[in-house]
Structures are given as structure tokens and as C-alpha cells.
Write a structure and sequence with these properties.
The protein is α/β, with parallel strands linked by helices. The protein has helices at residues 17-31, 44-48, 60-64, 83-95, 107-122, 149-169, 186-189, 214-225, 263-275, 287-290, 297-315, 366-376; strands spanning 4-9, 36-40, 52-54, 98-105, 128-133, 174-179, 204-206, 231-236, 252-254, 257-259, 279-282, 321-330, 333-341. The chain starts with a strand and ends in a 13-residue tail after the last helix.
């Protein structure tokens, strides 16, 4: 019996996680060195219960369809793992003659990947393990950026530009847009790229890397509102006060996952009560991570390549690694892939550097825009504005 390969998805899906799946499957099949290419249905639970699908037996048309499908076609999970689960995972891999195991996900999944790698080594088996980076939050360590993030950033920039055009047209309220991202403000900051010719773009951006001051927020809004042009605010779901105290108490928490209260609604209410100004909240939520219509072409290409690189790594005998991106140039955009030791990635959270945040803590610097712009792939639609600010 030949060697098999297994792909496991973990954590929140993205608009391009299936592109990585496609790349990994195609690379494994083309290598001629893998007898069966399995996908674990439902993440780690699928691995532990041996609930697999033969990806290599699917038609080419079905596999090609992965490139235009958001979410995870094989399913994912956030199941809490215990020490004995990792030992069992190693047993399942050996039992099913799986020599190559790939784990596609974010910080938590890379932690799982590392622990499965360690369990396989402890069991004395020959399983080769690699991670595939994926997160819309862009908070994986070592890599310049992570597949899934550029598409979420493009969605945020494009949607905020559309909202700004609407608010400028009928400037009768303050609009607060809430962005996903618990502790890292990469996606929230992407709203800065909505800016166009000084006429469109968010007026204020608040990130979880800085403490939030409600009085300073109201003063910012009041100053802008006095100009009579409407106000657009973008805020991270994870903004907090001094000492890390959540602005809105979490409504549910389990393990590493925190489900925050409605930050945008809270800020809108502050404006209404504190300033007597009409305000409304918008919360794109998971629409921001699954939209195919706002998907970066660069993200699609790099996500597929990350899957292929992980396969090439294990087939060449590498284990305990994750393909990562190294930026070589912004213009023209160029990057290269390298293999990072999985221990450098496990549960190491990468937040937005302070040099990307303005001195007032209510906006983003141009340096961030220069870093992000090449990852979006496409230019945002140009919008016509005859009313000048």
C-alpha cells in the first residue's frame, strides 16, 4: 500500500481557503507519489473519527470549482483539543497509511499542527507534517501576510468606499462600521484604502492596538459633524478601554474564541446620547470573509501556491514547517515563499505595528496603505462626487 496525504481545515473559513485546498490536491496528484489524497470532513473531528473524502477521486470539474467557492468545502472546526487527542491523531494517521498531513488554518490551527507533529515524533512514526497559513485577521507570525486577509481587506476597503459615497450623498447621520478582528486591527485598518481624492473615505478608524477613549471619540465625531458632511467611523470589534477592558462585554466566550457584543451599535448609541446626532451602525460580519465578489486575485494565486508549497515541502522530506511569504518589493509587487519552523508560529499573535497607526489613535498612516495596496490586486471602482467636502 502506498503513501497517502491528508488535508485538514481549522478555524474560521475565508474566501480563498478552498484555493489552498485545490493547490494542495493538484500538487499531490501531479507528483505521482501519493496513492490517495484525503480531506478530513469537519476539521479535526473528521481526522479523529476517520471521516475522510477522497479528493483525488473527484472529477476535474469538481476540483476546479473549489477556486470559486468560499468557505471550506470539506468543513472546518474549532474543537478544543486535549493531549490525548493529539496522540490519537498520530494513531489515526499511521492506521490509514497517511504519511503526509497538512493543516490549513490560523494561529490555533498552527498550534494544533505543531502538537500533531510532536505527537507523531513521540510515536516514532514517519508522518511528515506541515501547516498552510490561512486567516482573514492576518495575525499569523513570521509571514508578511496570510492568505485570506487580502480578500477581507479588499472587501473592507470597497464596502467602506460605497458607504462613504452613500453618506456623502445624504449627510444626515453618523455611520459606524464594525470590522472583524479581535486583537489585531489589520482588516479594520484596510478601510483607509477606501479613501479617494480626499472626498471619499472613512473619517475615523479605531483599532484594538490602542486603548479607546469614549470622550475623545465623541469629541472627534462632534468636530467632524460640525462640517455638515456626515461622518463615517470604522471600528474593530475588539476595541477596548484601559487595561484591555472590552468596550462592550463579550456575549459568549469559549476557549480562544470570544464573541463580542455589538461594538458598532454601542458607538452609535454613544453618539445619539452624547451629541444628540442621528447615528446608525453597520456590521458586515462574516460577509467580509466569505465574499467572492470582493476577492483579491493576488490572494487567490498566493493561497493556491501556499497549498502547493506545503505539499512540495512534505514530499521533499520536510516536516514541522509552514510555508510563509517574504515581501521583496511593493512596486512592482513581488514576494517569495520560505519554510518557517512551526514552533515559531504556534499561537504567536501578530498585531498591527504602531508605526501604522496615527498619533491620535483614530486613523492609519500612509505607510500601512503602501504595504497593503499591492495585496488587493484590483483597483477599487472610481466613484464620482460633485459635492466637495
Amino acid at each position: 500500500m502506498g503513501d497517502n496525504l491528508l488535508i485538514v481545515h481549522g478555524g474560521g473559513p475565508t474566501a480563498v481557503i478552498n484555493c489552498s485546498l485545490y493547490g494542495a490536491v493538484e500538487e499531490a496528484v501531479a507528483s505521482g507519489r501519493v496513492e490517495a489524497v484525503y480531506g478530513a470532513l469537519g476539521g479535526m473531528k473528521g481526522l479523529l473519527t476517520e471521516n475522510f473524502i477522497r479528493m483525488d477521486k473527484l472529477s476535474q470539474a469538481e476540483r476546479q470549482g473549489l477556486l470559486t467557492t468560499p468557505g471550506s468545502a470539506i468543513g472546518t472546526s474549532r474543537d478544543a483539543m486535549e493531549k490525548e487527542d493529539y496522540a490519537k491523531a498520530a494513531e489515526v494517521l499511521e492506521k490509514n497509511h497517511i504519511k503526509f498531513a497538512l493543516f490549513n488554518g490560523g494561529n490555533g490551527t498552527m498550534d494544533t499542527c505543531g502538537k500533531v507533529y510532536e505527537a507523531c515524533r513521540a510515536a516514532g512514526g514517519e508522518v511528515l507534517v506541515a501547516g498552510i497559513p490561512k486567516t482573514m485577521d492576518n495575525d499569523i507570525a513570521v509571514t508578511d501576510h496570510s492568505p485570506g486577509f487580502p480578500s477581507a481587506a479588499l472587501y473592507m476597503a470597497g464596502t467602506v468606499r460605497e458607504i462613504c459615497a452613500d453618506v456623502r450623498s445624504l449627510p444626515i447621520h453618523v455611520c459606524v462600521v464594525e470590522a472583524m478582528g479581535r486583537n489585531a486591527g489589520w482588516v479594520t485598518a484596510a478601510a483607509e484604502l477606501a479613501r479617494q481624492d480626499g472626498e471619499l473615505g472613512p473619517d475615523l478608524i479605531y483599532l484594538p492596538e490602542r486603548d479607546f477613549d469614549e470622550n475623545a471619540f465623541l469629541a472627534d465625531v462632534e468636530r467632524l459633524w460640525a462640517k455638515g458632511k456626515g461622518v463615517v467611523v470604522v471600528a474593530s470589534e475588539g476595541i477596548h478601554g484601559p487595561g484591555g477592558k472590552p468596550l462592550v462585554p463579550p456575549i459568549f466566550q469559549t476557549g480562544r474564541s470570544t464573541y463580542f457584543g455589538d461594538v458598532s451599535a454601542h458607538l452609535a448609541q454613544l453618539v445619539v446620547k452624547g451629541l444628540g446626532v442621528k447615528a446608525r451602525s453597520e456590521k458586515p460580519g462574516i460577509a467580509g470573509r466569505c465574499s467572492i465578489h470582493w476577492r483579491s486575485s493576488v490572494d487567490c494565486q498566493e493561497a493556491e501556491e501556499a497549498g502547493r508549497a506545503a505539499v512540495r515541502a512534505v514530499l521533499s522530506g520536510q516536516t514541522g514547517v509552514m510555508p510563509a511569504f517574504r515581501r521583496l518589493s511593493d512596486s512592482p509587487y513581488e514576494s517569495e515563499m520560505f519554510l518557517a519552523p512551526i514552533q515559531q508560529v504556534m499561537l504567536t499573535e501578530r498585531t498591527l505595528p504602531q508605526e501604522y497607526i496615527n498619533a491620535q489613535g483614530n486613523g492609519v498612516t500612509e505607510a500601512y496603505g503602501q504595504w497593503l495596496r499591492p495585496l488587493l490586486g484590483e483597483e477599487l471602482p472610481h466613484m464620482i462626487q460633485y459635492q466637495k467636502r
